[in-house]
Amino acid sequence: MAERRHIRPECIDAALAAPFEPFELGGRWGPRWDTTWFRLRGHIPEEWSEREVALRFEVGAAGSTGFGAEALVWRNGQPVQGLSPNHVECRVASRARGGEAVELFVEAAANPRPPFGASTWPVLDADPGGPGQFRLATAELRLVDPALRSFGQDLRVCLDALLALDPAEPARAELRSTLLDAARALDLADVAGTYGAAQPILEAALEVSPPRGAHRISAVGHAHLDTAWLWPLRETVRKCARTFSTALRLMDDYPEYRFACSQAVHLAWMRDRYPSVWAAIRGKVAAGQFEPTGSMWVEPDCNVPSGESLVRQLVYGKRFYLDEFGIEARGAWLPDTFGFSGALPQILRQAGVEWFLSQKLSWNQYNQLPHHSFLWEGIDGSRIFTHFPPSDTYCGAATAKELLDSVRHFKDHAIAHRSLYPFGHGDGGGGPDADMLESLRRLPRLAGLPEVALEGPDAFFAAAAHESDHWPVWVGELYLELHRGTYTTHADVKLANRRGELRLRDAELWATAAHPTGDGYPHGRLEQAWKTLLVHQFHDIIPGSGIGWVYEDAARDHADVLATADQVVADATARLVAEVDTDATRRPVIVFNAASHDRASLVTLDLDPHDAAGLTAHGPGDDRSPVQVTADGSVVASVRVPACGYARYDLVPGSAPAQATLDVDRDHLENDCVRVTFDRDGLVTSIVDKRAEREVVAAGARANLFQLHPDHPNFFDAWDIDRFAFDQATDLVALDEVEVVEQGPLRVGLRMVRHFGSSRIDQLVSLEAGTARLEFHTEVDWHESHQLLKVAFPVEIHAPAATYEIQFGHLQRPTHASTSWDFAKFEVCAQQWADLSEGDYGVALLNDCKYGYDIQGNVLRLSLLRAPTWPDPTADRGRHRFTYALLPHAGDLRAGRVVEEARELNLPLEAIPATPRRAPRPPSASLVRVDQPGVLVEAVKRADRSPGIIVRLAEVWGRRTSVHVELWDAATLAVRTDLLERDQAPIPITDGNLALQLRPFELVTARVELAD
After folding, report:
1. Which of 419, 464, 691, 866 is the most exposed place for a label (fewest CB within 10 A)?
2. Are 787 and 867 in contact (CB under 8 A)?
3. Tens digits of per-residue pLDDT, 358-391?
4. How many CB atoms lie within 10 A of CB 27?
């Protein structure tokens, strides 16, 4: 008898206590995203004594595993096994007594079936009280005949092999003859009574010891389970419980079965929410059947997250495995991530990762990589052994065809004889089913099929990596020739992620300085904030390829991350402000600079604009600046602040020395560095670099040109930008209004407004004194569909390659399409800047939250917004605020200070009001300082599990250099560590400062103990 009850997810206690109502087979259940609990009660018939009994429960037309209705069976208050279209049976008794009562609870999730193939998707939000989506098809106890089932598996596998073998293969003819003999012995009208005659015929074929070829396949069970995608995080937690409980049950039945779990957060959820599942996992880990792998907190995108984010993915992932299982994860398992930064090999190796796996580049649009097993070399020279499964899937079905294809497609037979084969239902979880495991018991016993061993990734890589001493080497990024739209889609989540990354960096830096002994340092709050941020870097969240609910969760969690970081910054800077000597001041403020270099920039003051008249900001060294009220009513001053440090300023009445000349009217902006000219449409027709006496804008061209492209990708809407999208463009030249909105001694600005379609662009173009950086503060009210918005800057530069910032460095990509490999990179990813230089001069395009670039010929373009309709038809619609900047410069990107200028755009100075008092800290100081340009301070934090502080540095210019690192107190001990902060080698100390020799693009983590 089936009964149902609607209860919130994951609430077995409520289900056990709740009243239920009768429910008939065929009845409808499940409004969208609802949870229905079924209580099943019955008795096993007496005559079934000593027989195996199973529950067969089919929730209805549920789609494929992971995409539609799913369920979890509970018994005696504990989860037993997941149910899905491919897992429909759950064993109730291996040997029934007969006559015993059975009571089971089934937690059924009415997850909507995604409308694949539709050009526009529904929002797919929750529909409480809506109509039931599914009909309960089956809910019954069944007898299981193991011998008959075994015969069915023999027959199925032999037929599968027959269809997959090459017609010219002698083994195929032999297998066909065997199957014909078995068919003749079988009476289809009485299979149960006659299979006994047919079974020995098939078993004879399966008992042959076929000759083995040179290639060996390592098959590992896996359930690629997207942390969020076409379902919210809430549902992923339950998908994990279903998937893992199913895997655990199958491990009991198949001792040879090895299952790889690749995201630490999934296991953390089990520990925290499903204690019995967690206990069973720990047991199977100890037994070697359940293998935690992957080393990361989630399987992240590797283009958009910062370098420090990728570091923390590894730190928190590997530490979880070490703390909970005593296991050092050795691999990076990223089968479905959308391309891989050239910085990743070094990051992986410094975290103790020895191997890397992906499959995604088999999806390439134009070119295929020439190897499946190779060494991948990053921008710093670090190498990691890499394998791409030749089956070209991370959701293998354990079929003969896929096994044969693994051998046929493998590109490295000359030097290697092994490949990995991940199998199991995936994307939405589920994992392997019994049929797959039965197939893998049988297929290797058939002539013509390759050798297969069920083993985990570590065993495979330990053997495979030593097969050759002459591996081919791939240098640089692993660029995916697909999914280029993921650099741009859902701009909101990318902005929030950038803000979170930078603010957590600030929080750790200032909190470390404010708590020099470590007492009071907010370890727990910062770690939790980082882990929350990392979850939303999953490769179907931050790329913008999830449903709308995913981004509601992301917005909430990103707001929490920012609130935590802001509070830590506020607490820490308040402590530091109280320690800065402000004696003999009248209205002091302490200005904080989190960037790695000394800077002279504008800072926003906490000052009412009515109180600003006649004030001067008076700083160290008799530095004085007027204050200016800006277009938005805030008050700014020009200040000088040392690297990773602070400076005291006093707001006093009086005049400041004359500033550099600034000029503005409706058609130009000008300072001592550049003169910018606009035409009647508000487009930039000229940028004269007055220092270099050079025109920046290409002859006859117009810059800061917004361009709208029709954006209808062939296959994956939120994911892709196809090359043909660039064949048509609408130049948005119509200007509604232009006005001078800022005119002062520190900054000048023009406001321009444009309308197009259903959207509006409101932009402030501003120029500060003393810099060539032209900033475009932009607000877009965006209501288009299937449009791509770019902004273009044609420049007077000729170069065959442009340079793009990636994590902890940069790389070059072509500005032409001479080869198919060049052509494929028509849209690429960068972090905070891209630069086009021709030796002695260049132009950089900086951003504060954008990632998609294309630089073809002499035109730099930044992708601003997209408007796909699936899987989220509301993606990007609404209001967006962002800033980009054009930086003309003499010399290359190093001489032009491109890195520093990009950091200034992304790391605004922060002024904190103070009170006049005597205090021990000097009026201006660096808390951390490096004495060489091109070396960035990426992180300063308390060491997690040892004394001292952690300082992480990166050489980002691509040169060898000697650098000294000065901290706020003398160093008494310094050691290089790996990314998990484990000591490796001592660092020389000279006069209390760290002395380092850095290779091009080298990343260094140092643990430092300071004098009291």
Report:
1. 691
2. yes
3. 999 999 999 999 999 999 999 999 999 999 999 9
4. 14
Q: What angle do CA 25, 27, 33 make, to 5 degrees?
A: 120
Instruction: State percent of the chain over pLDDT 90.
Output: 94
Average pLDDT over residues 207-234: 91
How many residues can be counted in the chain? Answer: 1012
Nearest to 149 by CA among 91, 216, 235: 91
Compute the distance between CA of residue 413 and CA of residue 418 in angstroms, rounded to an integer. Answer: 9
Place of tokens 């020895």: 354
CA 8 – CA 95 distance, rounded (Å):
35
For the entire predicted model, the pTM comes to: 0.97
Q: What is the DSSP string of 80-133?
A: EEEEBTTB-EEEEESS--SS-EEEEEEEEE-PPPP-TT-SS-------TT----
Q: Per residue in 451-484, pLDDT tens?
A: 999 999 999 999 999 999 999 999 999 999 999 9
User: Phi then psi for 363, rounded to 5 degrees?
Assistant: -85, 0
Radius of gyration of the chain (CA): 32
146-164 and 170-185 helices cross at what angle (nearest 10)? 140
Catalytic annotation present for 969: no
Half-sphere exposure of 24 (CA within 13 A, CB side): 2
Q: What is the pLDDT of residues 892-924, one digit of tens each?
A: 999 999 999 999 999 999 999 999 999 999 999
| Mean pLDDT, the chain, integer | 96
Q: Using CA atoms, how far apart are residues 176 and 160, in angstroms rounded to an integer?
A: 11
DSSP H or E run through 191: helix 191-206
Q: Rounded CA gap, 379 and 947, in Å? A: 32
Q: Two tokens at 868?
A: 């796909």
Which residues 6+ apart lie within 8 Å of 632 measured at CB?
none
- Catalytic option among 336, 380, 848, 872: 336
Rounded to 10°, the helix 523-535/264-273 angle is 120
Give me the DSSP letters along 837-856.
Answer: E-SSEEEEEEESS--EEEEE
Q: CA–CA separation, 371 vs 471, rounded Å?
A: 10
661: pLDDT confidence band, cut at 50, 70 and 90? confident
